[in-house]
Design a protein that fits this description.
By secondary structure, this protein is an alpha/beta fold. The protein has 13 helices and twelve strands.
Length: 298
């Protein structure tokens, strides 16, 4: 169905004249007649009764007019929406973040971005790093931020910032008072760690492996699904915790939690990356958010 034919039809219905309709939309009368004839052939009905110099809609023409006006309205609405979306005037994007960026980095970035593009609303999904990659590959999010590298998984990665994965204890804990511990001390202490798939956990696993240990060599008392759960468990005296330093800045400043250093070992640093699908276009608002994201720091 040709939109121009619908426009011509509606104008004829409104002016009740082929010639006046042609003048209004800058078409010759024969062209107007051709458009109407094409529509009548397509629908298999007469759309107008010719009443001398005037034309009037038939019963079938009145039905068709209602739908033609709605089709043209929806076309205009769609074109406006696409324009607003592509020019960052209005739209919605869904992004994802693993726990640390999702809780401690992305909310601040979203607030700053929306000052620049107030018509773009952002939905944030928080999951572990592997789940964020899975959501990205499934097309359920357009941009993600994760705390581990995923090579060869259909994603393009852009470095953003880094953190430190540290050992923490409640301020009153004996090892917090000691300040620095040996590997033996750490192996003997009850330890709260993140769940499988967590970038924080993988960073810690790599760190202990480099020192010649395995995760099974430690007294893992619990595996939890968020940094908040690690912090609350540590505060409750359950044991030590393995966590990103970004997640405990405020608690360390207040003195309710202490960082515990391992003798002769610096805390491992971990890089965070923005991720997008490799070889697949993302929407203009998502592209702009990715560019903005790369200017931000934790």
């Amino acid at each position: 169905m040709d939109m121009k034919h619908l426009e011509t039809f509606c104008k004829v219905a409104e002016t009740e004249s082929f010639s006046r309709a042609g003048e209004a939309i800058y078409l010759t009368q024969p062209t107007v007649s051709g458009h109407i004839a094409a529509l009548e052939q397509m629908v298999g009905l007469k759309l107008f009764d010719r009443l001398g110099r005037r034309v009037a809609l038939t019963n079938g023409g009145r039905i068709f007019y209602r739908y033609a006006k709605e089709i043209l309205r929806l076309r205009d609405e769609a074109l406006t929406a696409i324009y607003e979306f592509s020019h960052l005037i209005k739209g919605k994007i869904t992004i994802g973040g693993s726990t640390i960026p999702g809780e401690y980095f992305l909310p601040k970035v979203m607030g700053r971005f929306q000052k620049e593009a107030p018509g773009i609303s952002i939905s944030l999904v928080i999951a572990d790093s592997q789940e964020i990659i899975d959501l990205l590959r499934a097309g359920e999010i357009e941009v993600g931020v994760v705390g581990m590298r995923f090579d060869g998984e259909g994603v393009a990665m852009y470095p953003l910032f880094h953190d430190r994965v540290i050992v923490i204890a409640a301020a009153q804990h004996a090892l917090a008072v000691k300040g620095e511990v040996s590997w033996d001390d750490l192996q003997a202490a009850p330890l709260l760690i993140r769940e499988r798939g967590s970038g924080t956990r993988k960073a810690f696993e790599r760190h202990v492996a480099a020192a010649g240990y395995r995760l099974d060599d430690f007294s893992i008392i619990g595996e939890v699904g968020s940094s908040t759960a690690v912090k609350e468990g540590v505060k409750a005296g359950i044991g030590l915790g393995i966590i990103s330093d970004l997640a405990v800045r405020e608690e360390i400043e207040r003195g309710s939690i202490k960082e515990v250093a391992v003798q002769g070992q610096g805390a491992p640093e971990r890089d965070f990356f923005a991720v997008v699908p490799a070889g697949r276009d993302i929407s203009p608002p998502a592209r702009r958010f990715l560019e903005f994201l790369q200017t931000q720091r934790s």
